[in-house]
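Can't paste images in this forum, so I'm doing it all in text. The chain is below; anyone willing to post the predicted structure tokens underneath?
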Amino acid sequence: MSYFVYILKCSDSTLYTGIAKDVNKRLDEHNTSDKGAKYTKMRRPVALVYVEKSEDRSSASKRECVIKKLSRGKKLDLIYA
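Text version of the structure:
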């Protein structure tokens, strides 16, 4: 089953990176439920600004780690490329 790496833009303009099998469901969780990340709960609403498909959880987690280490500028380059 495919996994996705995604980036959210929070209400305070910060960026949050995560992985999910179902990005739309995860976005809804970030915005409306207690299942969302602690970071995004305090920064609602969040908007999906980037999605990248990965073949499996392992590759998605590795890619998430790489993206999280990028500077904000490099993340924005990725989003708007």
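The beta strands are 3-9, 15-20, 47-54. Residues 57-69 form the longest helix (13 residues).
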